[in-house]
Amino acid sequence: MVVLLTGVMVGLRYWALAKAQREFVQFIESIRQGGDPVYAQDFASAISAGDGGEKLLEAARRFAISKQVVPAWDRLPRSAFRNSEKAMIDRVLAANHQQLKLVREARSQPVDFPAYDVTWGTTHGVPMLNEFMHLADALSKAGHRSHQNDDDGEAVEYLQDQLSVERLLEHYPYQAAHMIAESISAPSI
Fold first, then answer.
1. In this predicted structure, what is the pLDDT of residue 46?
2. What confidence tier does 37 reach under pLDDT thresholds 50, 70, 90?
3. Cα separation of 101 and 107, whole Å?
4. Domain map of the chain by residue range?
5. Residue 18: partners with Cβ closer than 8 Å, 6 or more residues away
């Protein structure tokens, strides 16, 4: 009788544990189905789900300032632009309208280390840090120009664009990228 009772108790225990485990697995799957990461591999795929990084990379690749304008561009102050400087900023932004549009689109998507070759156009495998710095600098100048023109809504948009570049650089496995990201996110107003 004791053996039978022990067998029933052990059987009930295993049945209760199996039932609890099935319920737990269903609960975990319902969380995952809702889009929330649970397991370590879920976090990696959740971050790289969008193509925000690729759009920012493409924007940085194609962003260009004509060689004639670069010396004057590099001498621009951080803010308080004269009318001729505002006109130069406007020309550079107009020439790079498509790239700025890509940056804006990337803001609505997860930003992660781009999934394809980030060493495009560089030597020795160093990522395109200069290109990202130029893009972020242009976004900063555009934001200051908008603020100076009393268009604070657009200034905030440019600031958010600039911070999306910073978030991408935080994912690069290079110390220099992290330093650049920190300089981008530092207050400049």
1. 40
2. low
3. 10
4. 2-43, 49-185
5. none
